[in-house]
Amino acid sequence: MGVATILIILCHMPAHGVVMPNYLSILLSHGGAGCDLFLFLSGLGMYHSLNTNKMGGRNTFSWFKKRLFRLLVPYLLICAPIFVVFALRDHWTLSQYFLRLSTISFYTEGWGLWFLALIIVLYVITPLFYKLFTGRSKREWLFFLICVAWLPSTLSLSQGFFFNVLFCLCRIPCFLLGLYFADDILTNKQIKLRYASAAILCLFIASLLLNNTGVVTISYIWIERLLVLITFVLIINRMKHNTIVLNILKFMGSISLESYCTNVFVLPFFTFISWKIGTISINPGNWTYYILGTSFCILISLLINKISGQIIKRPS
To answer: Terminus of the chain with fewer CB atoms < 10 Å: N or C?
Structure first.
């Protein structure tokens, strides 16, 4: 989760107006793979928690309630008060406030955190995926579900509800792969990344060639992001004995959701600071704004994480 959190913070830099060479901006744009890594790890984590839930003899509803509670507490602590500010500033109606706070607004108007809007839906249908992936035909189900999620991206749609739904659909394969490989990973079975990388690379090249024919256009963003993720896994694996790096990644992973929310909704408030001493700018290329603002967001994320932990641990 720590790698994913750092990637998301980095990929948001160009969108916040941080001036950098074009090649660096293009490179950082691939940091959006952090969200796909979140999805992969969420699939892995949900498989593990459903497995634990099943062995403990608890029902699926109790699992869903617990997962949703752990997701919504930090989200609401950050976004509920900030959205009040947005509502007063932009004259939202009460229905707009709750629609946007619920994340449904991402589907209806493209406003809000797409990752959160998607993961809540995935919480609802994951118990079904879990049953499919614990059966004998799990490989066939994986292939079928990836096709169902991926192939609709060939449709040419303008902005709107169905466009937003398709945007989320074509990110689901990463989540499905997390669920599929969860049992192997959690039981320490060896997964040969070399072969997995070769298969994904072939699929990526085939998608590029298909798009170049002009006959059909298909989204291959999740395939591209998987290649980026495998690259980072290999890099991190070589650094696994570096305790400083591992501690940083562990810390950032512990505040992953909080830092995602604060980076999107808290950081923009720092644009209201003039960043000048007299007539001299202390914000060349927006770097001061982004570095100090991000540092503040990390501190806020840590505070929210601690408060959320106390609320979640409190007996119901």
So the answer is: C
